[in-house]
Write a structure and sequence with these properties.
Two copies of one chain form a homodimer. Chain A is α+β, with helices and mostly antiparallel strands and about 80 residues long. The first copy, chain A, is built from two helices and three strands; from the N terminus they run E-H-E-H-E. The interface of A and B includes residues 18 and 21 of A. Chains A, B: Its main location: cytoplasm.
């Protein structure tokens, strides 16, 4: 089974990467760019039948820093 | 309007980050993890009516390195 995990910084956590992208887009002449947040996405091939709980455990233990990041699991 | 851009390394391009995640999951005792690919996701607030062409231009010029990365635009 294929799974996609989205990891984003929580609201209120400063996102310097996103800010850099916003500035760079402005400098390139793209107008109307409001807030920009950058996160990561991890696509994994897992054994069929891997439970969502197990995937949540992977996120909690390794993929996301739950102090500052939130994650979302999407099964493809 | 809210837009999400997914940027992933193209197939065939070595993904050391993904490999590191795969190894780490194995070391943590998670079995059955096949290939892992890591990419980035950029969420942007754009002016209403920004065309998909314009967003594509942002990707080509800044957000993705199209030599090794592919991108996908998702309007929310």
């Amino acid at each position: 089974m294929k799974v996609r995990v989205h990891v984003m910084l929580k609201d209120g956590v400063l996102d310097p990467q996103g800010e850099a992208v916003r500035h760079a887009l402005g400098a390139l002449g793209f107008d109307g760019v409001g807030s920009v947040r950058q996160g990561k996405v991890i696509e994994m091939d897992l054994a069929d039948g891997t439970s969502e709980d197990k995937i949540g455990e992977m996120c909690e233990k390794l993929l996301a820093n739950t102090v500052i990041e939130s994650y979302r699991i999407e099964t493809l």
